[in-house]
Design goal:
41% of the residues lie in helices and 11% in strands. By secondary structure, it is α/β, with parallel strands linked by helices. The chain is globular and about 65 Å long.
Length: 396
């Protein structure tokens, strides 16, 4: 199966004006994942009321606005714990004509795909997309996702066969940092498309423990540098090894390079994205929900293209244009979407340096094959290599 550049998917999405309606189908979950940001919500038997869901769908699918396409995003909890409601919403949407085109996206932990659910998914594959959370190696997945590795693995062939272009979500927590390289390499060997990242939360503990974890993470990234250097047929998985790092090198050396425009920076929170909690209340995204943040008053969503982030060290950081942030989590922790959390600064810089080394190694290999290059191409690549090596060796 050919690899797909994650950023190409972003470009395609940005080409169409898309709104995402995210429904909390249920707050119940059959797992107790270590990094779950919903740990403080009250698990409940009932999900969102069907009548509320209908009203929301009627409102946005018939709205006179600039959005051409609507993604009906169903999640929880674990959404398949409320499979009857999923089917009911789906049947309702297909029974009517709407002003806008739409499809379904269901994010699952992959443990509850019964034959009945699989048959339904296959029947509706033309308008239902499945997203999967899977953390790679047996050790990492079982540590972070409640010993569910075997349950998920038996459904990997179904996912690969029917959703080959859908990225799997791999999340790294403190306990699984020692297994990062093994997890990613095993996912590559399974021929899976995936993204991987450390969460925005403070997983690090005190300074002594953070230093220890960062040393382990640096070693893990070093293994990945060797792996992805040897496998230059593979795209680097975002966010952990982001191809967008090249915008820094080209800018620094005044090369002609256009930084891709993926639409609103960071996310669509408060713009193209709307989250509907089980009580029907609307939020800019799920990370703003009172049940998650504990905050009642929701602030005005800032312009996500803004440059003047806080704290001040962020606004002057050379990596600000590629450094991810979560405005909802910023709000939860700091009470203001514009004040970034910085728990991941050090780990992100390690990821950037690892990415730089991979690019440098791959370019050096390319230069050895001089037969494919003319003089102008070779000069351009040498300048690019010099910039990357300087960046990798001198740091940020």
């Amino acid at each position: 199966m050919p690899k797909i550049d994650v950023h190409e998917s972003y470009r395609n999405l940005a080409a169409v004006s898309t709104r995402t309606l995210s429904f909390m189908i249920t707050k119940n979950c059959n797992l107790n994942c270590k990094y779950c940001y919903e740990k403080n919500i009250e698990r409940e038997d009932k999900g969102i009321d069907f009548s509320i869901a209908k009203d929301i769908l009627n409102k946005y699918l018939n709205a006179d606005d600039n959005y051409e396409f609507v993604i009906i995003d169903l999640f929880g909890g674990e959404p398949f714990l409320n499979f009857p409601l999923i089917k009911k919403i789906h049947e309702y949407l297909l029974s009517r004509k709407w002003k806008k085109n739409f499809n379904f996206f269901i994010q699952t932990n992959g443990t509850l795909l019964t034959n009945e659910i699989k048959e339904w998914l296959l029947k509706n594959k033309n308008n239902v997309v499945l997203g999967l959370s899977f953390d790679g190696s047996r050790e990492a997945h079982n540590l972070s996702r409640d010993n569910s590795y075997d349950l998920v693995m038996k459904n990997i062939p179904f996912f690969k066969s029917n959703y080959p272009r859908q990225f799997i979500k791999c999340t790294i927590c403190a306990e699984t940092i020692p297994y990062v390289s093994k997890s990613l390499i095993e996912m590559e060997n399974l021929d899976l498309l995936f993204t991987a990242n450390i969460g925005f939360e403070d997983i690090w503990g005190d300074e002594k423990n953070k230093k220890k974890l960062l040393n382990v993470y640096e070693d893990q990234l070093s293994i990945l540098v060797d792996f992805y250097t040897s496998r230059n047929d593979l795209f680097l998985p975002g966010r952990i090894l982001t191809p967008a790092i090249e915008c820094y090198y080209f800018d620094k050396y005044n090369e002609k390079f256009e930084v891709p425009d993926y639409g609103i920076k960071y996310c669509g929170s408060g713009h193209g994205m709307i989250f509907i909690d089980t009580d029907g209340k609307e939020y800019p995204c799920h990370r703003y929900a009172t049940s998650i943040t504990g905050r009642i008053k929701i602030p005005k969503i800032p312009n996500l293209l803004m440059e003047n982030w806080k704290p001040d060290k962020c606004s002057v950081c050379k990596l600000i244009d590629i450094c991810p942030t979560c405005v909802g989590y910023n709000f939860e922790i700091n009470g203001d979407p514009k004040i970034r959390t910085t728990f991941h600064c050090e780990s992100f810089k390690l990821e950037v340096l690892a990415t730089a080394k991979i690019h440098a190694n791959r370019i050096e290999k390319m230069l050895k094959n001089e037969s494919i290059l003319n003089i102008e191409q070779k000069g351009h690549i040498v300048r690019r290599l010099d910039a990357i090596l300087e960046f990798a060796e001198n740091g940020i």
